[in-house]
């Protein structure tokens, strides 16, 4: 009999083949805190995966399996970068304060891609702003988000 005439399960089983989360082509630089976040995420996901197995929840199993693959790959490729010892110029791990043309001051810490959260003051080292800031010193002006900004502090 042709499979065209076989009734499929309601809703299909598409959740069993969730696509993998894309992995960045950039080096996986992380701070010590970033590595701890990855490890905490793996611990949480292992617990969720075990609970999904116990409950025979195929959807949750598919999601946690996909996320475990992603975070396991990120853990395996993580390269911990120690905080910069020199605050004379911006590096990975630096906290930088800029002053924009309109007088606003913003402070960002340059971190790994997975730990970046601009709303909480951390930006990825591959972001345009971090790229503009890296290697610069206090007093230098960078183009940031459509306007210029002066670096006023580095820690």
Task: Please give a handful of descriptors for the protein shown.
155 residues; alpha/beta; Chitinase A, domain 3; 5-stranded mixed β-sheet; two-stranded parallel ribbon; 3 helices; 7 strands
As residue ranges, the low-confidence spans are: 5-11
CATH level 4 superfamily of the largest domain: Transcription elongation factor, GreA/GreB, C-terminal domain
CATH topology of the largest domain: Chitinase A, domain 3
Helical coverage, percent range: 25-40%
- Give a count of the beta strands, DSSP E runs of length 2 or more: 7
Describe the structure.
This protein has 155 residues and is an alpha/beta fold. It has two domains: 26-80, no CATH class; 95-154, Chitinase A, domain 3 (Roll), CATH 3.10.50.30. Helices cover 32% and strands 21% of the residues. It has a five-stranded mixed beta sheet. It has a two-stranded parallel ribbon with strand order 1-2. Strand 3 (95-100) and strand 4 form a beta hairpin. Helix 1 (32-55) runs antiparallel to helix 2 (58-77). The longest helix has 24 residues, at 32-55.
List the helices and strands and how they pair.
Blueprint: E1 29-30, H1 32-55, H2 58-77, E2 79-80, E3 95-100, E4 105-111, E5 122-124, H3 128-133, E6 141-144, E7 147-154
Parallel strand pairs: 1-2, 4-5
Antiparallel strand pairs: 3-4, 3-7, 6-7
Short overview:
Helices cover 32% and strands 21% of the residues.
């Amino acid at each position: 009999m042709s499979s065209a005439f076989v009734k499929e399960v309601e809703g299909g089983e598409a959740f069993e083949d969730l696509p993998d989360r894309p992995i960045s082509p950039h080096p996986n630089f992380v701070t010590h805190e970033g590595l701890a976040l990855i490890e905490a995420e793996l611990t949480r996901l292992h617990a969720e995966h075990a609970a999904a197995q116990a409950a025979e929840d195929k959807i949750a199993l598919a999601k946690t399996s996909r996320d475990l693959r992603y975070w396991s790959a990120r853990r395996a490729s993580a390269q911990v970068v120690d905080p910069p010892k020199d605050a004379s110029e911006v590096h990975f791990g630096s906290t930088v304060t800029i002053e924009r043309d309109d007088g606003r001051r913003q402070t960002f810490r340059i971190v790994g891609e997975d730990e970046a959260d601009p709303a909480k003051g951390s930006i990825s080292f591959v972001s345009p702003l971090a790229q503009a800031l890296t290697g610069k010193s206090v007093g230098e002006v960078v183009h940031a988000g459509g306007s210029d900004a002066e670096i006023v502090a580095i820690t």
